[in-house]
Amino acid sequence: MSHQIEISNHQTLLAIDDRRLVEIVESVLTAHGLRESELHLLLVDNAAIHEINLAHLRHDFPTDVITFPLNDPERMPPEYPLEGELVISVEMALELAPEIGWEAEQELQLYLIHGLLHLCGYDDLDDNALASMRRREWEMLHRLGITPQAGDDRWAQLLP
């Protein structure tokens, strides 16, 4: 198993534990049967992700994570590595984490998981797809020892 992960930290708002991010990447991809990957994680502030969002998706606002798949795992032979780039707003995590009731690092880790799930073929374009993606995020968070906050509306449909 070989995951080549490059992390480019272009923000100074939060100290980043690169080893933890690599651990998350390896865990999520392994859970999805992906043994090889070449990924670039770009950690930025809201201004930078806003600019990228506008330039590539024509969305004129900052967002939490943008995923750029460089190949399609469903259409490539299994021996080929998954390739992609994730742009993650650390500033967005810092802003939203207190509202949710957990640490910015946990919110950032959720963004990473969300982006990785997009690379694995999940989408969130309709209610059913979003519900499926949220369930998988919940499972991945628990697998990584992160407890999602019960008061977080993102998990409302998953709670009894």
Describe the model.
The chain has 160 residues and is an alpha/beta fold. It has one domain: Collagenase (Catalytic Domain), CATH 3.40.390.30. Helix 1 packs parallel to helix 4 (104-119), helix 3 (90-100) crosses helix 4 and helix 4 packs across helix 5 (127-143). The chain is globular and about 40 Å long. A four-stranded mixed sheet has the order 1-2-4-3. The model has no long low-confidence stretch (mean pLDDT 92). The chain starts with a strand and ends in a 17-residue tail after the last helix. Helix 1 links the parallel strand 1 and strand 2 (36-44). The protein is 44% helix and 19% strand. 28% of the residues are buried.
Short descriptors:
160 residues; alpha/beta; Collagenase (Catalytic Domain)
Concise summary:
With 160 residues, this protein is an alpha/beta fold. It is built from five helices and four strands; from the N terminus they run βαβαββααα. Helix 1 packs parallel to helix 4.
Helix content: 40-55%
- Look up the CATH topology: Collagenase (Catalytic Domain)
By CATH reckoning, the class would read Alpha Beta
Number of domains: 1
The sequence of SSEs as H and E is: EHEHEEHHH
pLDDT < 50 runs, ≥5 residues: none
Oligomer: single chain
The helix-and-strand class reads alpha/beta
Which geometry do the CA atoms define?
Answer: globular
Beta fraction of the residues? 15-25%
The tally of strands reads 4
Taking the sheet with the most strands, its summary is:
4 strands, mixed
